[in-house]
Amino acid sequence: MTTSTRILLGVNIDHVATLRQARGTRYPDPVKAALDAEEAGADGITVHLREDRRHIQERDVLLLKDVLQTRMNFEMGVTEEMMQFAERIRPAHICLVPETRQELTTEGGLDVAGQEARIKAAVERLSKIGSEVSLFIDADERQIEASRRVGAPAIELHTGRYADAETPTEVAEELKRVADGVAFGLTQGLIVNAGHGLHYHNVEAVAAIKGINELNIGHALVAHALFVGFKSAVSEMKALILAAAAKA
Ligand SMILES: CC(=O)[C@@H](O)[C@H](O)COP(=O)(O)O
Ligand SMILES: NCC(=O)COP(=O)(O)O
């Protein structure tokens, strides 16, 4: 996840595993989805090993670690169990995310400002294994400054509020919040990624924000893949974001 003029696509395969877990079958295999995604142009593969194991399982992460041609972005809550697992697998990238068991999905960003000492200790510990650590936060200057202070080289701005915005005014406000967050993150010397809730119909405006390094996208890709196949779903998304970034 190094800063470049070319925007990267991280493909999140969590919800391939959601379908498998719904029946306790061996299919569909998120590992196969990851390999297809890479063939279709994914720059990296994102997985979130949730505490409740509702989708991705340890087995998936271990296999991916062996077979990925690109790099793994391992999303995890800040718990001792996850810290030890990350130390075992040493992913190229780790994104620290907030997690609550009852939530339908990751509803907001990590409160870095409210627990700086704890996040700083986690960033230091995970940096020691050679992982590039990012913090999944809201596009909020207080959280961005705190992310710099705790020593994270990267942040991922939560785009869920933009994705959920309903009126054109709300969409414009939320997009501006993300764009301002990107600009502010860059002034802090951070690598700035973004993701959550991005879809074929809303991704272009985000991809056009100057300075974004990578977009992480999952749910929309898996949903579209049902109708067009995983490779096509990924290559369509990649073409959209590259075109939007090139036009900007
Ligand atoms: C942290 C994040 O935004 C994604 O990884 C998201 O968590 C996907 O999985 P869920 O839908 O389980 O939240
Ligand atoms: N960190 C965001 C992510 O990996 C994908 O989120 P979504 O596209 O599944 O909402």
Automatic annotation (TrEMBL):
Keywords: Transferase. Its EC number is 2.6.99.2. It comes from the Bacteria. This is Pyridoxine 5'-phosphate synthase. It comes from Pseudomonas neuropathica.
